[in-house]
Design goal:
The protein is an all-alpha fold. It is built from 45 helices and no strands. Helix 30 (489-502) packs antiparallel against helix 31 and helix 39 runs parallel beside helix 41 (679-691). The longest helix has 24 residues, at 2-25. It starts with a helix and ends with a helix.
């Protein structure tokens, strides 16, 4: 009997195991478990974990519309717009009549400023269900965004007629009425929304924001405080009240609100992060750094805290600490977009620009609509010399997020370099719109006005910048530059001094002060004394030692210039301008070995910067060691394949020393593209065409080079030879004789005399 019972238990156990195994092999069961787990994570606010579970479900069944929809919702919560768009589009493909998905898709299109496509989604919804309230609301929002206020208002009236008790409909109506300049009607709609749902904190906050726009400060504060009372654990009303105080310049009161929020909402990530985010928002990085250091200790598993802390550390150049945090973020989520962007920023700071491009490109693969990633990728390309690609990335960044100030400022700087003052003004306007309380937009707009000789307009903008940020050194410095252009030297000096009082390390202001001294009375000794005085206040500023070195050089004191430039490169090993000038001073003093050592150090300290190899290459070329120079230019091009100076110099060496002419021609074309206005690049490309027998193209380029640099004997020599080959002896003789006249004992003197002899014999 005992044996029989054991057999029965064993068989029962096997049946249980078999049944369980059967269940585990059932794909529908596995899929449902993933979906249920994803829903659970989503309800807990763990959207990344939820997304992973829905992705697992879709690996089991890629046509499950519910899993696609829920994954799209996760992406919306995570602001992964492209992923949300793909998932919601897939839902509508699988279930064309899923109107809820179409509403979400239309809303997403509105966010992406695809207003016409959002309208098309609304119309499709309403064709299938003419009484769909959300469809009418979506079409109203699309009409409003397209500037058709009358149709938008009609649509909202229809939505309200269909569902008169929906508070949210009145909120949307109020926003549209406000945009249509119907302030009184908008106020009534806000109040109606609150009447329908008197316990809605969001409705009260919306009315508070409306009052804030009208500068009805006390009424706005009343609404925000009522919302806080209704939902004491909701951080949004507290954030709104903080912004209200900041808009009035009441920073102390604003700080008190976020400090209280940190205590009252200590169990909420949004709550305990609020104080740190406040300090970042007002630009107080010292307090932000202290706050996030404490938060990272207290909430070591909060990745958002790590990300914000790492960002501040990067800004403060505490790169080792930032790198540790970034590694922890990416260890938790290998393809985390924000983590990869942080890594890209770190690599940019470390001047590892090619590696930064790889990290940021990887971030954009998963989040192609991430505006900061495009911005930092643009920074990397700009540092690699690819200004066209850099601007393309910055334009994409501001297309995705017009208020991304860093990208607008980068575009403004690019516009300033190119003299594109329309773009500069446009970027300035965008910055002002995004941050009306910040001085940066007004400073940029003032720069555009200065370029257009609108001095009163520039002055008004700079005064506004100073009013907004009395401690901002840049505004004082730019006002100093304005006074300098007006030859009001005493006022200019005072303004530059005020800038330096606010930021003792602000090199632009010290340069402006030096310019004021030199332009006013050629006061070189006074300029040197002032630079020395500023160095005493900021002894680690490489730019100051570089400026001091230039002034000593101007005063013909090469020994002191060398000392100052040595200090410049010791203070900043990446200051290649200082390295370049130091080498030139050492050559001028007859210390070729010292110059070589300086440039070798530049290479050692900046192995990923093509310029360092070019500096040493040019020195070696000047010493007659063209083989070594050739190796260095090749290394520069390995670091940066399109670096025009390296391409130009390597091409010329190949042409002069029997190298491959086709390779030289290709390199010369790269140089010409990168240096379209440089006569040396025109000469090198012409010399390549000459050696290929294409004399007409060579002559056109050499005429350009001679026009830009009429005292360069080499350009005249090459042009003379090209005319000789083109059977134009008169022009050939004129340019060959001119070359000999400029430098009768130069490197090409024998070749010139030989060519002249051939012409005379002919």
């Amino acid at each position: 009997m005992k044996t029989q019972r054991s057999v029965t238990i064993l068989l029962a156990g096997m049946l249980v195991i078999s049944f369980a195994a059967g269940c585990s092999r059932d794909p529908n069961v596995r899929k449902q478990k993933y979906v249920e787990s994803g829903i659970s994570y989503f309800e807990e606010g763990k959207y990344r974990e939820a997304a992973i579970q829905f992705q697992n479900a879709l690996q089991v069944d890629g046509r499950d519309a519910e899993a696609h929809y829920r994954l799209g919702q996760c992406y919306l919560k995570l602001s992964i717009w492209n992923g949300a768009y793909q998932e919601l589009t897939r839902v509508t493909d699988l279930q064309p009549d899923n109107l809820k998905a179409r509403v979400d898709l239309g809303t997403l299109l509105l966010l992406g400023r695809e207003f016409k496509r959002a309208q098309e989604q609304a119309e499709l919804i309403l064709r299938k269900d003419p009484n769909n309230v959300d469809g009418h609301i979506l079409r109203a929002k699309a009409y409003a965004a397209l500037g058709n206020s009358d149709s938008a208002l009609q649509e909202m009236q229809e939505a309200i007629k269909l569902a008169p008790d929906r508070s949210s409909s009145y909120l949307t109506l109020a926003v549209i009425q406000s945009g249509a300049k119907q302030a009184a009607a908008a106020e009534e709609s806000y109040k109606k929304a609150i009447q329908l749902d008197p316990k809605s904190a969001s409705a009260l906050s919306a009315l508070g924001s409306f009052f804030q726009q009208q500068r009805r400060w006390s009424e706005a504060e009343q609404q925000f405080r009522r919302a806080m009372e209704l939902e004491p654990k909701n951080p949004q009303p507290r954030m709104a009240l903080t912004r209200l105080y900041l808009a009035q310049g009441l920073r102390v009161q604003a700080e008190q609100i976020v400090q209280q929020a940190k205590q009252a909402l200590s169990d909420s990530p949004e709550g305990y992060r609020m104080l740190g985010e406040f300090y970042i928002g007002v630009g107080d990085l010292d307090k932000a750094l202290t706050e996030y250091a404490a938060l990272e200790r207290e909430h070591s598993n909060d990745l958002q805290v790590k990300k914000s802390y790492a960002q501040i550390l990067i800004i403060r150049d505490r790169l080792d600490e930032a790198s540790r945090l970034t590694d922890e973020i990416l260890k938790a989520h290998r393809n985390d977009g924000e983590g990869l962007i942080l890594r890209g920023q770190l690599l940019n700071r470390q001047r590892r620009f090619n590696d930064a491009v790889q990290a940021l490109t990887a971030a954009l693969k998963s989040e192609p609509d991430n505006a900061p990633a495009h911005y930092h990728l643009g920074v990397a390309f700009n540092q690699l010399g690819n200004s066209e690609r850099a601007e393309s990335e910055w334009r994409e960044a501001v297309r995705l997020r017009p208020g991304l100030v860093q990208a607008q400022e980068a575009l403004a700087a690019a516009a300033l370099r190119k003299g594109d003052f329309d773009q500069l003004n446009e970027s300035a306007q965008q910055v002002i719109s995004a941050q009306p309380g910040s001085p940066s937009g007004y400073i940029l707009r003032a720069t555009a006005k200065l370029a257009r000789k609108d001095l009163p307009g520039a002055e008004a903008d700079l005064k506004k910048a100073i009013e907004l940020a009395p401690q901002n050194a840049v505004a004082y410095s730019r006002m100093g530059g304005l006074r300098l252009s007006q030859k009001r030297y005493v006022e200019a000096e005072k303004l530059f001094d005020q800038a330096l009082e606010r930021d003792p390390n602000f090199a632009e202001a010290l340069q402006g002060l030096v310019d004021a001294y030199l332009l006013q009375q050629k006061q070189l000794p006074r300029a040197l004394a002032r630079v020395s005085q500023q160095i005493a206040q900021a002894p680690n500023n490489s730019a100051y030692y570089l400026l001091q070195g230039k002034l000593f050089l101007a005063s013909k004191d090469l020994e002191k210039a060398e000392v100052a430039l040595q200090k410049a490169v010791e203070a900043d090993k990446n200051n290649l301008e200082a390295f370049a000038l130091l080498g030139r001073v050492q050559v001028a003093r007859g210390s070729l070995d010292k110059a070589t050592a300086s440039y070798e150090r530049a290479v050692q300290d900046n192995p990923r910067d093509a310029r360092s190899y070019v500096l040493l290459g040019m020195l070696e070329e000047g010493r007659g060691n063209w083989q070594k120079a050739q190796e260095l230019y090749q290394k520069a091009l390995q670091v940066e394949p399109d670096y025009p100076v390296a391409a130009n110099n390597l091409a010329y060496i190949l042409l002069e020393h029997g190298g491959n002419t086709d390779v030289a021609l290709s390199l010369a074309q790269v140089a010409r593209r990168g240096l379209p206005d440089a006569p040396s690049a025109a000469d090198t490309l012409a010399w390549a065409y000459y050696q290929k027998g294409t004399y007409g193209l060579a002559i056109d380029l050499l005429k350009e080079a001679v026009q830009k640099a009429p005292q360069n004997p080499t350009y005249h020599y090459h042009l003379g030879l090209a005319y000789q080959k083109a059977n134009n002896p008169t022009e050939a003789k004129a340019h060959l004789e001119r070359a000999l006249q400029i430098d009768p004992r130069g490197a090409h003197a024998d070749g010139i005399r030989k060519a002249l002899s051939e012409l005379a014999g002919g």
